[in-house]
């Protein structure tokens, strides 16, 4: 296997188009490099020494079938990130060194977001859930709202409220700021995770014929099944209708399309004059008044609620929009970044310096932090 072929495999890995076996080979080789180095500071000499043996190492150390899950977990634990193209750049271009990006290290850490949200009750009272102690209970007209130790907000309804008319109860709204996320267990048992800079409005008691909520930003839903009451998510000019299922909705205004990704069950996505049915593994994209459907890797869409950024085949601007919302930073581009794509995953628990260092390993892209501004330079 010559250098050109190695480059092609690494390029396919970066774009997310390599085969499962190629992916396992590359990730297994990377794991062993990390294990052997015992350090994140792998020198140029080590990288150049690996150049002639890279393919032999990948093949020799590829994971055995029954150990794939264990080895992949070790990859994540040992390295936190898998962006192989960055290392490929070192292998084949000895003149570039990470020290050129030391501007990233000269600033105080910009920490990641966390469980932060505000709850607005039906009477207009606004509560900072971040400051609310675990186990605390908020009471509103017979409704108990409890903050759990994991940050989840749980609703408990008394028998008196359960028999009351929905109109007498009113709506609650939960909002996450930039750099915030939150989880809420709705009165019907539906679980919702809100991403950064998002909001969810919902009735404290659902009506007798439907369960309707309004979403802005991004949310992941695990809807409690109730065939007598369809669950509807209203956002912008679309309505999503389900009976019981798992799906993700991304409605951020700075994204090129409103996207709904289905993991389980079925979902009906409706515009004013068009309706489409999604099946597991499909994603709808709404641009203007048109709906398009495509098969996708659902793990990419829901990685955020599991605590990761997932960048398989993602363009740089898409990645930077996610980073901007999670770390509450402004992104400024100096030059045309085009359609540069990345591969791999990065934990959202890392501070921004670590994330940018990894992304900076990709050929031709550098970053500089100026306060809470990230400069992207070619």
TrEMBL record:
Listed InterPro entries: FecR, FecR_C, Ferrdict_sens_TM
Residues covered by the Protein FecR C-terminal domain: 309-376
Coiled-coil annotated residue ranges, if any: none
TM regions (residue ranges): 72-92
This protein's name: FecR family protein
Keywords assigned: Membrane, Transmembrane, Transmembrane helix
Keyword Transmembrane helix assigned: yes
Domain FecR protein: 173-268
Keyword Transmembrane helix among record annotations: yes
């Amino acid at each position: 296997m010559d250098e050109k072929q190695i480059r092609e495999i690494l390029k396919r890995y970066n774009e997310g188009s390599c085969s499962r076996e190629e992916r396992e080979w590359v990730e297994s080789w990377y794991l062993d490099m990390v294990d052997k180095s015992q350090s994140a500071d792998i020198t140029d000499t080590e990288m150049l020494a690996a150049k002639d043996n890279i393919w032999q190492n990948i093949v020799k150390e590829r994971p055995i079938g029954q150990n794939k899950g264990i080895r992949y977990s070790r990859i994540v634990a040992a390295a936190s990130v898998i962006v192989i193209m960055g290392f490929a750049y070192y292998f084949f271009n000895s003149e570039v060194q990470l020290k050129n990006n030391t501007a990233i290290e000269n600033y105080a850490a910009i920490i990641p977001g966390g469980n932060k949200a505000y709850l607005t009750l039906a009477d207009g009272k606004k509560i900072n859930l971040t400051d609310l102690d675990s186990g605390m209970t908020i009471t509103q007209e017979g409704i108990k709202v409890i903050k759990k130790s994991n940050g989840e907000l749980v609703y408990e309804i008394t028998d008196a409220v359960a028999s009351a008319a929905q109109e007498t109860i009113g709506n609650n709204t939960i909002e996450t700021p930039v750099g915030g996320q939150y989880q809420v267990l709705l009165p019907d048992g539906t679980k919702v995770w809100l991403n950064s800079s998002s909001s969810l409005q919902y009735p404290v008691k659902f009506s007798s014929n439907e369960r309707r909520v309004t979403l802005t930003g991004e949310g992941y839903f695990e809807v409690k099944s109730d065939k007598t009451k369809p669950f509807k998510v209203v956002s912008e000019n679309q309505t999503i209708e389900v009976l019981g299922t798992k799906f993700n909705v991304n409605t951020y205004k700075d994204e090129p399309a409103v996207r709904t990704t289905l993991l389980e069950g079925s979902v009906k996505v409706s515009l004013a004059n068009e309706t489409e049915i999604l099946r597991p593994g499909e994603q709808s994209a709404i641009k203007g008044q048109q709906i398009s459907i495509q098969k996708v890797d659902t793990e990419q869409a829901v990685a955020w609620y599991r605590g990761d950024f997932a960048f398989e085949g993602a363009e740089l601007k898409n990645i930077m929009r996610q980073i901007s919302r999670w770390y509450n930073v402004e992104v400024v581009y100096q030059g045309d970044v085009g359609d540069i794509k990345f591969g791999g995953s990065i934990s959202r628990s890392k501070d921004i310096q670590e994330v940018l260092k990894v992304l900076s390993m990709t050929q031709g892209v550098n970053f500089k932090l100026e306060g809470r501004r990230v400069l992207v330079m070619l």
